[in-house]
Amino acid sequence: MARSKLKLVILIAIVLFISYKLISFFSTFHIYAAGKYPYAETYYIKSPEKKILEALEKMHLTNLDLKDENTTDYWHNIYFDLGGKRIEAWTRPSIDNGTDFALVAVHKNRKTGWQLVNQELGLFQNIMLKREFEKEIVEKLKAELEK
User: Fold this and answer.
1) What's the rounded Cα separation, in Å, for the pair 90 and 36?
2) Which of 105, 100, 131, 101 is nearest to 118 (CA)?
3) Mean pLDDT for the stretch of residues 84-88
4) Checking CA distances to 54, which of 9, 10, 36, 48 falls within 20 to 30 Å?
5) Is the distance from CB of 74 to CB of 61 less than 8 angstroms?
């Protein structure tokens, strides 16, 4: 009886491991993720995009770069420093005169390069980065817009 339970546990562990490896393999090729920024963490803010960009400027973020190099696309790319890391974010117009504001990627150092949020970071790193972004950027941005 104990031997059959051990075999069942080993079989389940092997199936889970293979499933994890297959999902990880295909996610690196974006097989099942659509769009230009499929893994971005998006926040809806009920304010026009222009006001959000002005509020970001007033927040005096370190090394803020609001210059959008490609004005023909749908996204307005934004770069700034947050806690010693370089952050890539974007804004785009949304419904009801609101704006989608998204965290796209983080650049910690030259070794790791740019890492996509919700894709290339470990679970703990991903959670901590999103919490820091929400606390230091999104909440402060909303407060700035209410002024």
Assistant:
1) 12
2) 105
3) 91
4) 36
5) no
Q: How is 7-43 classified by DSSP, letter by letter?
A: HHHHHHHHHHHHHHHHHHHHHTTTTT--SSSTT-EEE
Q: How confident is the model at residue 33 (pLDDT cuts 50, 70, 90)?
A: low
H or E element that contains 42: strand 41-45
CB 82, CB 88: distance < 8 Å? no
Question: Taking a C-beta distance cutoff of 8 angstroms, is the pair 66, 59 a contact?
Answer: no
The predicted pLDDT at position 103 comes to 92
Residues 6+ apart with CB under 8 A from 62: 80, 81, 82
With tokens 């941005």, the residue in question is 141
Residue carrying the six token digits 């295909």: 26
Give Cα 107 to chain centroid, integer Å.
12
pTM of the model: 0.71
The type of residue at 12 is I
CA neighbours closer than 13 Å in the CB half-sphere of residue 28: 5
Q: What is the pLDDT of residues 90-130, one digit of tens each?
A: 998 888 889 999 999 999 888 888 888 888 888 888 899 99
